[in-house]
Amino acid sequence: MSYNYLINMEPILINSAKTAASKMTNSNAYPAFPEKLDTRTFKHNLEFGFIALIMACTYVETCLNTMCRALFNSTSEDLRTGNAKDKIEKILSPSSIRIKELKASKTWSDYMICLDLRNDFVHYKSNFSYDPNSVYGRGSIRKGKGGKVDIVKFFTRNNMEEHIDNLSRLIQELAEIKDLKINESISPVIPDVSDKAHDYICKTTSNS
Predict the structure, then answer these.
(1) Each residue of 9-37: b (16+ CB within 10 Å) or e?
(2) What does the CA dihedral 58, 61, 66, 70 come to, rounded to 10 degrees?
(3) Residue 117: closest CA among 153, 89, 158, 165
(4) Residue 203: what are its φ and ψ, rounded to 5°?
(5) Which pLDDT belongs to residue 203?
(6) pTM of the model
(7) Of the residues 37, 48, 68, 86, which has the fewest C-beta atoms closer than 10 A?
(8) What pLDDT, in 10s, does the model give residues 98-114?
């Protein structure tokens, strides 16, 4: 038996990120001793934070691919090359002003932080070290293009949820600039492709 269906990955990814972040706690320290790292809680937050981070960054790249298909009729082969930053510049081209404005925004800086951390985790090469000057005494610090990040503070529920919201806002801003519609209510799995196939991001009537 064969099934006829379409999977929209974008809502699955962003919902998975939000669900994982909701399972985190707001601190990695002992409640009674805020200066002392609670390693069990930190391990818990790293596990769910890792899922949230990966899903949120993958959501952004998946949305960028969908935007490129909608705007430029890009094929799957076309989308195999170029990183997320290249695709954003392609989407905003030829407006260099828009690109500069975006790169000066908090949504962009948050995305760079998340992308750097995502790359460090996915391509792990002992990138994390201990900083004896951290408030926790042994807070893991990462230095990179996204800046200096204390992952003990980064992997908490409120912080992770804020970054997920900002990554969602980045996609919303790109869609608005290019007059694209985000179908947030679309089902992740559409059973009858021939009758109900719709993209999560598509052209509006005005730019069709």
Answers:
(1) bbbbbbebbbebbeebbebbbeeeeeeeb
(2) 170
(3) 153
(4) -70, 150
(5) 77
(6) 0.84
(7) 86
(8) 788 888 888 998 998 89
